[in-house]
Amino acid sequence: MKRRCGAAARDVWPLLLLPVQAAVMVGLGRLVTGPAAGHWPLSEEGRTSRELVERRDAPATGISEWFSVLAGTEAVIGVTLLCIVALLVLPRVAHRAEALFLGVSVAAQSAVFVFVTACVDRPRPAVPKLDGAPPTSSFPSGHVGASLALYGGLAVIAAMRLRGPWRYVVTGALLLIPPTVGLSRMYRGMHYPSDVAGGLLNGTATLLITGFALLYGRGTTAEDEPADSTPAGRHPAEHHPAGKPGTSAEPRPADATGTGRPVLVVRHPLACPDGLADRIRAVLRNHGHPDQKWILTSAESACGDLAEETTAHRPALVVVCGGDGTVRACAEVLAGTHIPLAVVPCGTGNLLARNLGLPIEPAAALDESLAGDSFGIDVARIQGDGLPASRFTVMAGAGFDAAMVRDASPRLKSRMGWAAYVLSALRHLGDPEVRLTIRIDGGRRLRRRARMVVIGNVGALQGGLPLLPDARPDNGRLEVVLFDPRGPSGWLAAAGHLGARLLRRRTPPQPGTATAPGASSQAGRSEAGGALEYFTATRVDIRCAVPQPRELDGDTVPDGARLTAEIEPGALRVYLPRAPGAPAVPPQARAAEDDRARQLPAAPSGPAR
Description:
41% helix, 19% strand, globular
């Protein structure tokens, strides 16, 4: 499956800003060595270097040497590799996102530094030097930039992962290292103050870009919490007095204790480890659902025995602990049954949960959902050559994105999470476009060329990137995009257009303002210089000239030339904190709620059920 547990699924488009960062640094370097060189404060930098030489003494020289070595190439590489290994090996669940963030930050800073020094030629201060002078420009300071990327990156991770007073002590100590390295480099006669400032700017910009790309919006998840001290296992049903039912858009099912109707919990065993399963049990009990029957998924059945158990028990609620693929398989069974579903996002992408406004912390998502109401959302029914009739809740695609999913290395996916798909995508950037026809709501067939076709029930990708900005899960419509960038300029235009759309944080239509169900757009609208073309439909038929890779909600399906998708309005009942499209909870409130969820008690262990 495309989505695996514990990895941070983040869209990497902000990394496209690294060339911009390099260009800005080159411009600053040319300014420092050119028009601004004779003006204050740059005109006083030589005197500052000479004054530092005059103030040298043995203790200060020893301290400066230690910090200079701490930020040297060998030390930075060694500490970076050691920390990456520690992040992947020492925790119970590998911190892949943080490890990737640290490695990319150090590598990106170094790449920008090498490029800038190749474009800017600034001699080092004309004073006695305590270190050998490398053959690179004095601007910017490589030691300072590298130390900020490494130790500043570790400070970011410490701020995310540590709790209590040590969080501030460790973070503060790490953040003091880069400016101290800068003072040491000036003291040792290796750099001017503006070189140090340039290194600090380069390192800071790198951390901002990589942090936004790889860590933005990520919090500590339940999987990252320490496992309970009790042995893991399943727990017998406990018969308590029923919890108090709440008000909902559709009447809540009666509590399981009052009707004999249990809650079925579908659990992906890799995405939802034992410790998290204990927390889910506790949340369900707190909401009046002690009678729980757990179902494990398998490679052969993405929803386990859900169909059989649903028929046998007619459950009050189905809870799905897994990624988008697991949710899709369960939705296939539950659509049209009026049995409500609750999503516990345990995958990497968790696109349905994100688009529905759920917290990404699994226990918090379930807690908020069960405190809310049951709402109807759309699902899409899809079929094609070699593809039996199926349903999806997020997106279906053919072409580039499906090839990326199909060809990602399983070994890399297990080690790197979503980043493995980036490497796979690079292999397919040169794939040719395909001739196709698209038919919207039974209209005439339109002939097009495209590298990728995406049919969406929801619109946002990882990182909140709105690929389909008009898509909503409850408006009775599908949104379709044809992606066809022509050459490097086309790719840049598409990336810039989508990036600008994300920065604008387009507000989704509120309830009552969406286009009426059944409305369609057969003509399409072109954006990003023709790289993107959008359609709106209740039924769409795609026919490609040659078979293409295909995927449903991130799971690959057999290659084929045809896809026909049709919306099923309101076919799936889902428990949500608020109606789809309603204003989201402010980040501060969301953080408080997630912290509360992490404090929910785990159930005592017991025999398996």
